[in-house]
Amino acid sequence: MSDGDWVIGVIGGSGLYAMDALENAQSIRIESPWGEASDELVLGEIAGRRFVFLPRHGRGHRIGPSQLNSRANIDVLKRAGCTDLLSLSACGSLKEELAPGDFVIVDQFIDRTFAREKSFFGPGLVAHVSMADPVCPAMADRAEAAAKAAGAPVHRGATYLAMEGPQFSSRAESELYRQWGCDVIGMTAMPEAKLAREAELPYALVAMVTDYDCWRDDVAEVEVHDILATLEANAGKAVQTVVEFAEALPEKRPANPLDTVLDQAIITDRAAADRTLVAKLGAVAGRVFAARGI
C-alpha cells in the first residue's frame, strides 16, 4: 500500500460528546449492516487534515457500555473512509502514580467483558487476527506527543482492564486486577480495539483518569458525580490533544503494517465462504476479498 491521505477517526468517550475544533463540520448518518451506530458521524477538518468524530455513548450519553454496538461503530468509521482511529476514554486508576486528571497512553488490554459481540467474523467465514500488540505504536507515539503538547500529565504504557459494567468494581475485584499488574480500568475499550484490528484500522487509546478505583482504603469509593467533575476538567485538554495530533501529522500517511492484517488472518476456503457474511463484511474486509476473488 502506498502513502496516502489521512482520515482520522476520533471516538469520544464519557464527557466528550462533541468536537468543536472541527472546521467545515457536517453531520451524516451512515447505515451499517451490523445495526445502529452510537450516533451520527461529524466530518470536518483540523489543521487541514480530515477527521471523523463519533461520540461513543451518543450525544447526551444515551448508551451504556454493554449496549454499545461497537461493530456498527467501527464499520461506519471504516465506511466514512477512516484510515486510523484515535480513541479517547475515561478510566479508573489502579496505581497510585496515575492520578485523576492524568492521561495514559495504553498499550495492552485484559478483556473481562462477556456480553458483547467481539468479532465481525463467525460461522461461514473465520478469521484470526493477532492481538499480541493491540495498539499501533506509531499512533500511540503521536497520541503521547499530542497529549503532552496539550498540557496534560501523560504516562506512556499501561495495561487496561476492560470490565463489563455498568457497575463499578468490588474492592476484591479491584485488588485482584492490581495483582494482575493492571494499571487502569474501564468499560469500553473492548471489543473496540479488537474490531479496529479486524477492520485494518491502526488504533491508539488515550485513557483519561477520572478517579482511583476502590482499592484505596483512605479514599471513598468512586461516585459518578466525582467522575463527572474530572471529565469536565479533562474535556478541554482532550480536544486540544486532538488538535495537537492533527497539527503534527505529516503531509502524507505512510503505509502501516496494520493496513493488511487480514491477508494472513482469513482461513475459510473461498468456495466455502458464506455469501451473506461476505456481503456484510464489504467495508471491513472488502480489500482482501477483492484480492482473493471472494
How does this structure look, described?
The protein is of the alpha/beta class and 294 residues long. It is 28% helix and 21% strand. Strands 1, 2, 3, 4, 5, 6, 7, 8, 9, 10 and 11 form an 11-stranded mixed beta sheet that branches. The longest helix is centred in the last third of the chain and has 24 residues, at 224-247.
For the largest beta-sheet, the strand count, sense and barrel status come to: 11 strands, mixed
Judged by helices, strands and strand pairing, the structural class is alpha/beta
Structural domain count: 1
| Strand percentage | 15-25%
Order of helices and strands: EEEEHEEEHEEHEHEHHH
Tally of alpha and pi helices: 7
CATH topology: Rossmann fold
Low-confidence stretches: none
This entry's quaternary arrangement is single chain
The CATH homologous superfamily is termed: Nucleoside phosphorylase domain
Shape: globular
CATH C-level category: Alpha Beta
What attributes does this structure have?
eleven-stranded mixed sheet, Rossmann fold, 11 strands, 294 residues, alpha/beta, single chain, 7 helices
Q: Brief overview, please?
A:
This protein has 294 residues and is α/β, with parallel strands linked by helices. The chain is built from 7 helices and 11 strands.
